[in-house]
Amino acid sequence: xxxxxxxxxxxxxxxxxxxxxxxxxxxxxxxxxxxxxxxxxxxxxxxxxxxxxxxxxxxxxxxxxxxxxxxxxxxxxxxxxxxxxxxxxxxxxxxxxxxxxxxxxxxxxxxxxxxxxxxxxxxxxxxxxxxxxxxxxxxxxxxxxxxxxxxxxxxxxxxxxxxxxxxxxxxxxxxxxxxxxxxxxxxxxxxxxxxxxxxxxxxxxxxxxxxxxxxxxxxxxxxxxxxxxxxxxxxxxxxxxxxxxxxxxxxxxxxxxxxxxxxxxxxxxxxxxxxxxxxxxxxxxxxxxxxxxxxxxxxxxxxxxxxxxxxxxxxxxxxxxxxxxxxxxxxxxxxxxxxxxxxxxxxxxxxxxxxxxxxxxxxxxxxxxxxxxxxxxxxxxxxxxxxxxxxxxxxxxxxxxxxxxxxxxxxxxxxxxxxxxxxxxxxxxxxxxxxxxxxxxxxxxxxxxxxxxxxxxxxxxxxxxxxxxxxxxxxxxxxxxxxx
Length: 484
Hints:
Elements: H1 2-18, E1 24-32, E2 37-39, H2 57-63, E3 70-72, E4 78-87, E5 93-109, E6 112-129, E7 132-149, E8 175-190, E9 196-213, E10 218-237, E11 244-260, E12 269-287, E13 293-307, E14 312-325, E15 330-342, E16 350-358, E17 367-376, H3 382-386, E18 404-416, E19 421-433, E20 438-449, E21 456-467, E22 470-483
Antiparallel strand pairs: 1-4, 1-22, 2-3, 4-5, 5-6, 6-7, 7-8, 8-9, 9-10, 10-11, 11-12, 12-13, 13-14, 14-15, 15-16, 16-17, 17-18, 18-19, 19-20, 20-21, 21-22
């Protein structure tokens, strides 16, 4: 739980460090009517992430970054947030922001198993001027999960046989653990040089944990939480005018500790979790005839999870190539990644993605655009995959049952409101997923300003997921951006 809360807080702060400082308002929310929820693919965007597996910019113009929905087994709002930014009159900018995020966790030790979810609501404010950005965030986190003892009644734990410590039914039984945490997290970033950016965060919090057993017992203890994070990105080689070789390195370190007090009924606990990540990414744009260009990309990353939660070290590699011909309005992209090595020899993880896009007028949002893609597993590159919060052991593409899916997206834009705006629908369908029986339907409408119109954009979106003979999951949402 402590590690999940730390990651949720860092994801929210990372969004702030990479957000534009243009004065204005941005808000979005997605709500599900049944168990299941949807969040935009831009949620938790890492700082200076480079290629992130998002739709190409030419499609972001039509669909927005949140066109592809992802389902999580949650019961609350997901992907809800806002930010308001304004100039402070001294050359800097101040911002007030909020964010609500959800996550899941699970763990096992011996015959015991635990799984649950955690939600974190954050409110923060930050100030930026020159090379510096400094901020402070207040977060409120709630977690809940069920635990199970899979040991058969009457059996004895290892090491206790023959010592007179087992006298029959010693199975601990099942129960539930609920946790609440309020924390304060200051953060800062510095553009040390043109090529080097450093950022960090530290947090402290307190709350309580409640244990309920299947026999009706209820026990409570106070908890303390702390976290320290430091990361950097650096461009080792930077292309000139978008051409030539680009080489960047990225690394970060996280430490978090969660403690609970000793009570008359509960033992004290102290648990640490650590994470170290290092990634290298290189790409080179090569111009071809008739304005076309080809961009190959290579990525390599290493990640170490340690402490008292899940642990392990993994090395991943990714590669991709994109070809774009603006005159024809065509783009082709192929990406792949694989887990090269891991301490767990039984762990396998790989992904592949191919997509073709058509937009004859990429300089405007008006007209028709299409995209057809096929995904197998998690196809984002090794660097991006390692810097995602998901543990290597929890990847969709790990082991058997790799997810395969076809996606078709279409959008059309035409003049609206006297030609000052572009409005139009976008729609998508995904077929495949778990067992090949899932279907995702997306339908929405977006408005964008043109020319001298007020810089205000608005979008509505509805998503339905159905399959496996179960009741469909429905979600609706909106996003609003206004700049001045």
